[in-house]
Design brief:
2% strand; mainly alpha; 58% helix
């Protein structure tokens, strides 16, 4: 397959997959998550209307980012219409309390505001970005504490935060040319790398606690790592950061990529615990890894040899895509494995918007590859 990426058959396969993922996106976007809602009834930190969280969380936010990228790549107005309809609907319901996870839909909204020239959208984004700077709970050393809709997580850094919150802050720094936003985003990438990137393998731990000063169960969780593989190229594309920081993050990505190649399964997939072949293979992480690696190659951050690593899971991801275009073999939202790595093996599998988004991002980058 690697040698034939330029032929018409592969190009059409990729484009057909993108159309299929897009056609099923709204179904997954608006699917009710009863497990999440029941948990919010008991554990909501803000005690506000849980309907505001029903379709405005990190799960939808990542999905919307993938859909935004699809619109930008294709220019199809129907994709833009879906995005507009979503945000107008949510604004009418009312936005939820601010935290790491509810911040995620702000990243695609910031791009949308810029594209449409919508000052009202941009004003909402600015309010939320200002909140990150002034009111976001902090850990030691000024880290963004991974506070969610239902958990304070005092003194904790999680790898998810960079994708879910910091990319948005970096993008607002670019859009508004705000030096303070830019520098804060840069600092958060550096601090999270300091405490979450393993020196031996280059893989990332799910979290760090300043309270107990450890990396919890010490798990190299798949999807948590894929947020990094995707976030570093995305950040370096968005941010006009210092050259020293660019080099530092590029080397972190390269170290991770070496281990990803080492632990890739024969069929191209990655396991939900990257270094544990007894854990199940997982589609969303696989798409995120393949996307980040391929984008890293295209941006000149990674050696061209990683192109073959990134192309390898394509056929298996298609095999996990059902006739409606919904990606299967996706692990459900995963809290911190605090004591036992086996916790990650027990997370159920369920189609989710972020699975659709990561598949779209992967195939968009494949489409870029096929047109080389």
């Amino acid at each position: 397959m690697e040698e034939g990426m330029n032929d018409d058959m592969n190009q059409e396969t990729i484009k057909a997959a993108l159309r299929l993922y897009a056609s099923s996106f709204e179904k997954v976007l608006y699917e009710e998550d009863e497990t999440f809602l029941e948990g919010m009834k008991k554990n909501s930190l803000a005690c506000d209307d849980i309907r505001r969280y029903q379709f405005w969380e990190w799960t939808q936010g990542v999905g919307l980012f993938g859909y935004w990228k699809l619109f930008k790549a294709t220019g199809q107005e129907r994709y833009l219409s879906v995005l507009n309809k979503y945000y107008e609907r949510q604004f009418a319901i009312g936005l939820p309390a601010k935290n790491v996870n509810t911040m995620t839909p702000m990243l695609p909204l910031s791009f949308l505001a810029e594209h449409l020239g919508r000052e009202d959208y941009l004003e909402v984004c600015t309010q939320w970005a200002d909140w990150i700077m002034t009111d976001f709970p902090r850990t030691e050393e000024g880290g963004l504490q991974h506070i969610t809709s239902d958990s304070v997580n005092k003194g904790e850094l999680w790898d998810d935060t960079l994708f879910m919150t910091v990319l948005f802050l970096a993008n607002m720094g670019r859009i508004l040319d705000r030096k303070d936003y830019k520098e804060e985003a840069q600092y958060q990438f550096l601090l999270h790398t300091k405490y979450l990137c393993d020196r031996e393998t280059g893989l990332w731990y799910h979290g760090w606690t300043f309270e107990e000063r450890n990396n919890f169960a010490g798990a190299f969780w798949g999807r948590g790592n894929c947020w990094i593989t995707a976030a570093i190229p995305e950040y370096l594309e968005i941010a006009d950061c210092d050259e020293s920081v660019r080099r530092y993050l590029t080397e972190a990505l390269r170290a991770q990529a070496r281990s990803l190649e080492k632990y890739q399964a024969e069929n191209g997939m990655w396991h939900t615990l990257i270094d544990d072949p007894d854990s199940y293979v997982e589609s969303s992480a696989t798409c995120g890894f393949a996307y980040g690696l391929l984008k890293g190659v295209h941006m000149g951050l990674l050696d061209g040899a990683y192109e073959a690593v990134a192309l390898k899971p394509m056929e298996q991801i298609l095999a996990y895509t059902d006739g409606e275009g919904i990606l299967q073999q996706v692990s459900y939202g995963t809290p911190m494995g605090r004591e036992d790595k086996n916790f990650y093996k027990e997370i159920p599998l369920k189609p989710m918007p972020y699975g659709q988004a990561l598949a779209m991002l992967y195939f968009l980058e494949l489409d870029h590859q096929s047109m080389k």
